[in-house]
Specification:
The chain is an alpha+beta fold and 200 residues long. It has 6 helices and 5 strands, in the order ααβαββββααα. It has 2 domains: 100 residues, no CATH class; 74 residues, no CATH class.
């Protein structure tokens, strides 16, 4: 049987627990809203980073084939003739230099990373035009820590995400909280990257 003193202490513990969970919800909610934008940026750019071996994260590549008349075997084009090809098949682009990787295969470098290749024997060629990805390219740069201010912001972001995790533990009590379903889900979440690390 609880006396009045015990009841008061019990009520105080309940009130403190409720206030603590209330503050946890506020912190969890406000930090989540505040960092939602940067978290979305990291997620979108992270998908591109995961596939950077097959997708150019900084440029879009447009490949256009063309057909020229064949050239005499062993003929080497001059700078002016190579520049003429650029003007014809990559209008508006600027020639930089050219060379022959093999006897009848011409490669022309175009300013900005684009290029033109021509098989002089068959006359078959193509132009690869690079154009910058205006949004994704900038987002991907954030993964490479572009400056000191970003380092500090990233540190604040990382610490805030730790707080979001901790407050997430304390928002709920009972079977749905950290000592119930929440704890089980967290354990599974920890095991997933460990599983992939063991496979690698």
């Amino acid at each position: 049987m609880l006396n009045d003193t015990d009841t008061t202490r019990y009520d105080n513990r309940i009130n403190k627990g409720s206030r603590f969970r209330k503050w946890s919800r506020w912190i969890h909610r406000d930090l989540s809203y505040f960092f939602a934008g940067i978290l979305l940026v990291y997620c979108v750019s992270g998908v591109y980073m995961n596939h950077r071996d097959t997708v150019n994260v900084h440029h879009k590549v447009k490949r256009v084939a063309f057909q020229e008349s064949s050239y005499p075997s062993g003929m080497k084009l001059s700078r002016e003739e190579a520049n003429s090809l650029v003007n014809r098949y990559a209008e508006g682009k600027t020639y930089t230099q050219h060379y022959y990787p093999s006897e009848d295969r011409l490669k022309i470098f175009i300013k900005g990373g684009s290029s033109l290749e021509l098989n002089q024997q068959s006359g078959e060629g193509f132009v690869e035009i690079l154009s910058r990805r205006p949004i994704v390219s900038d987002m991907v740069k954030l993964h490479y820590n572009p400056g000191r201010w970003w380092t500090w912001f990233s540190d604040a972001f990382a610490i805030s995400m730790i707080l979001v995790v901790i407050t997430g533990f304390t928002m709920m009590k009972g079977r749905k909280g950290f000592l119930g379903r929440g704890g089980i889900l967290m354990l599974i979440g920890i095991l997933v990257p460990i599983f992939f690390l063991l496979l690698s």
